[in-house]
Amino acid sequence: MGRKYFGTDGVRGLVGEAPITPDFVMRLGYAAGKTLVKTATSTASGRPTVLIGKDTRISGYMLEAALEAGFSAAGVDVMLAGPMPTPAIAYLTRALRLQAGVVISASHNPFQDNGIKFFSEHGTKLPDAVELEIEAALDQPMGCVPSDKLGRATRLRDAGGRYIEFCKSTFPNELDLRGLKIVVDCAHGAAYDIAPHVFHELGAEVISIGVKPDGFNINAGFGATSPKALSEGVVEHKADLGIALDGDADRLIMCDGSGRIYNGDELLYVMVKDRMAVGPVKGAVGTLMTNMALEVAFKEMGIGFARAKVGDRYVLEVMQERGWLYGGEGSGHLLCLDKHTTGDGIVSALQVLSALKRSNQSLAQCCGDLTLFPQTLINKRVTAGFDWQKSEALVAEKAKVEQELGDTGRVLIRASGTEPLIRVMVEAKDPKHAEAMARRLADMLEQQAA
Questions:
Q1: Which of 75, 97, 302, 363 pairs with 28 at a CA distance of 20 to 30 A?
Q2: Active-site amino acid positions
Q3: Given this model, what pLDDT does residue 46 score?
Q4: Modified residue Phosphoserine is at which positions (predicted)?
């Protein structure tokens, strides 16, 4: 059974268009309240409690109010955290023993988009089965509990301070960041008043950029999806390192003092190699998009490697199935289950920094024996619901490209789970071949989708 509203990262879309409308979000809150609290234990108030956080988009105020109304009508108490990173809500939900956490965010998307994602009481993203149950509840009429059973809303005080201390606790006690000058780019997003404090309190000299949200500038020219600002900032300030987060701070991209950008595949390699120096690592999980070089490197290190569907929720599922602790995506979603239950840009940055400190090496040195295969990724916007696999011409062209590449590369065409996009990726040892073949496929896709 397919999901009607939930994508790879919750419910997401353009604000004002279905499903991101006030009436739908209120019904979503009601349906989620009825579904998520069926087996929940009562709180001191006698009602289940959920925590709601958001990023810095202007639409967050409207959607927060709609969610709050829906949960209240379902008899669920609400705690409001205000602008907070997505992984902070996951942590606080678990730490406060709440029944669920909700984040209002469209992550790396522009401000016109927004979305709703849920966390379980364990601080993990909901499995597909629970999301399907919520969707089934959405098809039922919305009701309202009696007035004496309505949920209440309260503000969670010092949510930021609690989360800052948690992040710092994931960094080794015997290490600090003294002597490092770090540029921290918060994408004008949810971590704008969180991330700089974490690195500063651990001893680093911090230059903050992307920390002036106005409701409209989230991810605009800053952050993990626009790392040029980070690279230029590091060079301009003669910093040692740069750290870029996305709008909800669950992604991480870094750069070294020369301004050279390191993606999620490289950062995962640094983290796993560091853990190997401490003790054995059974395996790591990537996705269908993970660079082949990482798979080869882990094999040479005697570390198992598995690929999941694209999306950190699916990476986590494979990690849990295999009992492995580390995984991630090239986009910067990184998971360290020995530190957190979900992907966390700040926590991941601290794991990379601790690896550099322990090894007394630079990022370039830590990645010196990992040479990524050239990849070309082209995104093409299509009509919602377009299925590229139904195009015989495109399927045939893909097979032709794969035959030409042989064992020197690979091809991946997939629909985005968060936007009406088809992503075409070609990986080859020769970068010119990768680019030329990706453009061939993208041009064919554009013709077929017209």
A1: 97
A2: 107
A3: 65
A4: 107
